[in-house]
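User: Structure please.
Assistant: Input sequence and predicted structure:
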Amino acid sequence: MSISTEIADFITKATIDDFSTESIETAKIAILDCMACLIAGSTEPIAQLLCDQAKHNGGNPHSSVFTKNFKTSSQEAALINGAMAHALDYDDVTEGIKCHPSVFLVPVALALGEYINASGKDILLSYLVGFETACSIGSGLSESYFDDLGWHPTGPLGALGSASTASSILKLNPEQASVALALAASQASGLRQNFGTMTKPFHPGLACKNGVLGAQLASAGFTADQNIFEGRFGFLRAFSGGTDYSPANILESLKKTNHMMESGVEIKKYPCCGSSHLSLDAIFKIIESHNIDPNAIEKITSWVDFDPPRSLVHYNPTSALEGKFSMQYLLAAALLDNQIGLNSFSDEKINRPEIQNLMGKVIMTRHPGNEGKQSWMEGFHKVDIKLTNGDIISNTAERHYSGALRGATVEQVISKFEDCVSIAFDTSLSHKMKDMILDLENLEDINQFIKLF
């Protein structure tokens, strides 16, 4: 059997009973967090641009665009909802494949689930199947995929996770699911060079659309190559730079690893690139214990692990989107504003003279001895603030490597949900949404939830 055939076998034969109670509960929290980010992200400019384009293109009104009061095709709805969910960069990440899983799973499950009147259990199953599949495929890629080749991991792996979720929710047979995966592999993309622009959240949106398209075409009889992963010109070799990929890792991972529990979903505290979060945690520890005059700062050094220099690519940001991918802005704003929140990102805030001045004092560098090395496991950031009198104030923050929510509590996620949803809905409606998601396995028809919008 080919890899795609074995994955398709998993996708189509999995039942909700195959997953632990803890995995199911974690999936519900991840869906809650994703909907929070989607609703808050629906106010971003990218949302209106994509909605206008969808209306211009036309399409059968099968699936809802959340908060926007209209329906479009399931493909377009998945695209727009996926992009909105990632627009603020506030959505979850997972350690195993170093990407944002829920934004390429939830919009697909809901878009297709609405159209076919899927149950809450169907939604949960399709989410879990997509999560496990994407993580397993990611385990077969080389480290170069996550590094200097320039791929945004959420894009290519997102297309495959989306196709898996779509295949599950549409109840495709194994042959059809294999085709859906191969179609998604041929549509997979997303480049780091676009970080700090609207195109970054477009990546998971496009992954969602392509996953839906692949599953729909497969169900209609489309054909594709079964050796799409391990083949000479297949996904693994192409996206790994030609070397160091492992087809065997995919199947071993799929059969032996519970990715939801082992990789977990890290719930974001700050609406910006996750590669900055440990440094933000460290600097807020400093702020809590010291009253620092920004004018007395000579230099701020952020000692980081492998990923930040590859993701925080804007050293002199001038726009809100660039600021989300700038260690310089984020640490300067934390010091001057004593917070990083939804209101921290506007062009005006980025271009404040006092911010621009302080950004020039921020340096980001690898931990000593690790420069140039590929290592994702250093696991902590350190921030040093050197004052003009010579004093140095330091603190560190460590990454959580255990717990399905990686240190977050359910109460914290609910609080984040209520904060995000308040942008568009009143408290009573917010509570109804939350209660339905947290009881999703007992929802007979997902349209009961979608009608709340």
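The first strand starts at residue 63 and ends at 65.
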